[in-house]
Amino acid sequence: MFNREVVQIIEVLGRATQGITRPFICRGEDEQLYFVKGLHAGRRSLIAEWLGSSMAAAFGLPVAPFRVGEIEEELIEVGPPHFAELGAGYVFASEAVKNPLELSWTSLDNVDPAQQLDVIVFDWWARNQDRTLTALGGNPNLLWDPSASKMRVIDQNQAFDPNFDKAEFLQLHAFSRTWHKVYEDFVMRQIYEMRMQNALEQFEEACDRMPDSWLIVGDDVPVDFTPEQAYEMLLFCRHDDFWKP
Asked: I need a labelling partner for 151 at 20 to 30 A (CA). Which of 72, 99, 174, 207 fits?
């Protein structure tokens, strides 16, 4: 299953100016443009990105389409020196969406209220603190297409944060204003717990579709973050204290 989903990267066009990892803009053999993260992002980031995106999609979020990409050594060797930061081998490739605008504070109310709740509940579950937005600015990692009134969720590379700060999350998250709607509604919380359980049933498949090479830092040294650790964090949704701020 994994090999059939890999897209070959045939051209590196540039580099994004935004985002902590500053992904590379590349073209795949399918002529699709992708934002690509590789060696420069780090193994932990790639694992979190893949598993976070997979779980977000399974949970029902409008995630930008993503795939595993593959870059041949020759493509890196013939390019400028900074291509070495991308590296050869398997990479995370997120499709470039049309008409992308970063969701702004003034456009928050354009997002479907149900989708707002979905996003903040998922980020709470996945311990993703990297979706901040207040009147002073932030880094929402959400794209908005005004022509289609459609939102896309991107960048899950900071998910599964072992130092997840609940108070800071509820203060700075882009949709923090909606949290009380789910926290105060026992029935809605149960519905979300069922959605989490359903998504968890796809976790093993997501792991099977992820390159084994991402689990190794180098010289057979394993990365200090594993899918098992991510799974344990997600299982906390079964704990009595899961919803406790």
From this structure: 207
